[in-house]
Every structure is written in C-alpha cells, then in structure tokens.
Amino acid sequence: MEPIQWSRWMSVGNDALDEDHRVLIAIVNKLYDDESRQDPALIEAILDELIAYTRHHFAEEEAQMEKLNYPTFAAHKALHDRLTRQVESYRDEFRAGGSRISGEEVFLFCSDWLGKHILKEDTRFGEYAGTGAEMVAG
Length: 138
Ligand SMILES: [Fe+2]
Description:
The protein has 138 residues and is mainly α. The protein has a domain at 34-128: Four Helix Bundle (Hemerythrin (Met), subunit A) (Up-down Bundle), CATH 1.20.120.50. It has five helices and no strands. Helix 1 (15-29) packs antiparallel against helix 5. The longest helix is centred in the middle third of the chain and has 28 residues, at 40-67. Fe (ii) ion binds at residues 61, 76, 80, 117, 121-122. Fe (ii) ion is lined by residues 61, 76, 80, 117, 121-122.
C-alpha cells in the first residue's frame, strides 16, 4: 500500500481542476500516515475535510460539465454523489465511535476511488472538453 502520487496521466487539461485533484490527493494521503490512521478523532477530522473539499470540487467539476453539455454528466454526477454518501457514512461511524472499519480500510477505499476516478472518469471529461483552453476556471 502506497500513498497516491499525482501523475501527468491524471491531468484533465484544466489547471483549476488539476489543482483541486492535487488537494484531494493530499487530504486522502493524510490517512496514509500511521499515527493519524490510528486515531478515530483524527480520522473523523480528515474525513470532514475531505467531505468539505469534495463538495467544493464536485460542484465546480459538475458546473463545467453542464456548461459544456457533457453527454454522460448524469452518470458522472451519480458517482460523485455515491462517493460523498459513502465518505459521510464512514465519517458518521467514526463520530459515533466503535467504527467497524479501520482507518487503513478507509484510506484504501478513498485512495482507490480517487485514483481510478481521476484516471478513468475525469480524464474522459478532459478529453471531451478538448485542450481545456475554452474552459473557464474558477
Ligand atoms: Fe469527477
């Protein structure tokens, strides 16, 4: 198991979205750290941060998709919504105490989801959007 590394293959050709993805990777990688992964209160705080940042980022990405009439927008948004619900439910479990899932498992789930989502789903939108030159950042 490794922390996620940004790679150029993850670029969607849009600086603002790429930067968001780097921030998301950095937040998820906090769960790679042994000490934070053992501390339920810290895991909860990291998941809170992840939820807040994904909300901001997904809204931005979805706005770009809608603006460019991305054909599979609804399916892509459904992936975002499902992920958000899953991370919220992990966060709620840690908040309630006695979580059945370990910090390591949460890290594995989030890193796997994020890496695959960026590489397989977001880059597909990046290709659709062309070079990204016509996309408005921010
Ligand atoms: Fe996405």
